[in-house]
Amino acid sequence: MALMITDECINCDVCEPECPNNAIYQGDEIYEIDPNKCTECVGHFDEPQCQQVCPVDCIPHDPDRQESHDELMAKFVKLTQG
């Protein structure tokens, strides 16, 4: 499943550069994650890097975006080919 950033985000800017898929961007009020680009770092790292660096723990799994490890890997392949 893709990750999401909750309104507890303090706009500290540490998550955006850690995302290998460029899925994190500055939204109108807080950072946001493009679920079409989020692979939870599958294919790049063992754990989501944004969650590792977030100082306020505001990046949970998005309950509306259920994806298996295989689906996340397929998304990674699609994003990185070509």
From TrEMBL:
Residue ranges occupied by any 4Fe-4S ferredoxin-type domain in the UniProt entry: 1-29, 31-64
MF GO annotations: 4 iron, 4 sulfur cluster binding; metal ion binding
Source taxon at top rank: Bacteria
Coiled-coil features, chain-numbered ranges: none
One Gene Ontology cellular component annotation held by this UniProt entry: cytoplasm
Keywords in alphabetical order: 4Fe-4S, Electron transport, Iron, Iron-sulfur, Metal-binding, Repeat, Transport
UniProt entry tagged with the keyword DNA damage: no
Pfam families the record matches: Fer4_7
PANTHER family assigned to the protein according to its UniProt record, in alphabetical order: PHOTOSYSTEM I IRON-SULFUR CENTER, PHOTOSYSTEM I IRON-SULFUR CENTER-RELATED
Protein's name in the database: YfhL family 4Fe-4S dicluster ferredoxin
Source species: Nitrogeniibacter mangrovi
